[in-house]
């Protein structure tokens, strides 16, 4: 009896793996890109497919593909897609190249936050003003110029400043245009751009909290405080 149960379990497991493999092949053929993961979504017989930084949903035969869909658990009204994206895009904070970031320590600096920002990004400027009010935190700001050539120029001028944090805040918070040199060693900025592409960061600001959770876009200060408080 036990042997029969084990055989059935193995058979079902093999079928699931085969189904996921078929879904992967079908989606890669239709999307024209590498699929990073395929899992059962847990609803309506759908499969969750993660590729190119996006979540897609499809059936086991890949007869239809849902793009940009938000899957909501009707019982709890939780956004399943949003929760899954947080897990799929999370990183290990200590693996960030922190030596390529502008470091600011406030108070005891025990809480940590990393941001990827473009100096000409309006939402980044709003975030910079909000972050001025945070206490007991270490903020790592990665210069990620993606909007224009002027963004690259300003990033280099800020990076080449004697006091990078001061130059960054003077521009982002006070509106004082950086005017320093831009011919120092600025390989860090190029490498930040490469790293941003690797992490599929397509917009600024993008934030990473100490637990590795990624938040694309700006977030209100009370919510940032709440997220920092939740991380132990």
Share of residues in strands:
15-25%
Describe the strand arrangement of the main beta sheet, using strand numbers.
Answer: 7-9-8-10-11
Could you tell me the mean pLDDT? Answer: 89
Radius of gyration: 22 Å
Coarse shape: globular
By CATH reckoning, the class of the largest domain would read: Alpha Beta
- CATH topology-level fold name of the largest domain: Glutaredoxin
What's the CATH architecture of the largest domain?
3-Layer(aba) Sandwich
Describe the structure.
This protein is α+β, with helices and mostly antiparallel strands and 232 residues long. It folds into two domains: 2-88, Nuclear Transport Factor 2, Chain: A, CATH 3.10.450; 93-230, 3-Layer(aba) Sandwich (Glutaredoxin), CATH 3.40.30.10. 39% of the residues lie in helices and 20% in strands. It contains seven helices and eleven strands. It has helices at 2-31, 80-88, 122-131, 149-159, 164-172, 187-198, 221-230, and strands spanning 37-40, 47-51, 54-58, 65-67, 72-73, 78-79, 102-106, 111-117, 137-143, 206-209, 214-216. The strands form three sheets. A five-stranded mixed beta sheet has the order 7-9-8-10-11. It has a four-stranded antiparallel beta sheet with strand order 1-2-3-4. Strands 5-6 form a two-stranded antiparallel sheet. It is globular and about 60 Å long. The chain starts with a helix and ends with a helix. The model is unreliable at 2-17 (pLDDT under 50).
């Amino acid at each position: 009896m036990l042997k029969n149960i084990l055989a059935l379990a193995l058979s079902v497991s093999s079928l699931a793996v085969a189904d996921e493999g078929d879904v992967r092949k079908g989606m890669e053929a239709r999307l024209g890109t590498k699929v990073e993961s395929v899992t059962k979504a847990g609803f309506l017989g759908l499969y969750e497919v993660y590729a190119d930084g996006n979540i897609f949903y499809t059936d086991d035969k890949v007869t239809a593909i849902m793009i940009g869909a938000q899957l909501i658990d009707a019982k709890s009204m939780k956004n399943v897609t949003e929760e899954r994206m947080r897990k799929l895009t999370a990183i290990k904070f200590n693996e960030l190249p922190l030596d390529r970031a502008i470091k600011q320590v406030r108070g005891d600096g025990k809480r940590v936050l990393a941001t990827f920002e473009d100096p000409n990004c309006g939402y980044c400027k709003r975030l910079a003003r909000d972050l001025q009010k945070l206490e007991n935190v270490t903020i790592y700001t990665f210069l990620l110029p993606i909007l224009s050539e002027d963004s690259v120029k300003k990033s280099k001028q800020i990076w080449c400043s004697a006091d990078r944090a001061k130059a960054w805040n003077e521009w982002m918070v006070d509106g004082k245009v950086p005017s320093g040199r831009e011919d120092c060693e600025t390989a860090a900025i190029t490498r930040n751009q490469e790293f941003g592409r690797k992490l599929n960061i397509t917009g600024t600001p993008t934030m990473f909290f100490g637990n590795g959770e990624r938040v694309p876009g700006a977030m209100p200060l009370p919510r940032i405080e709440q997220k920092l408080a939740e991380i132990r």
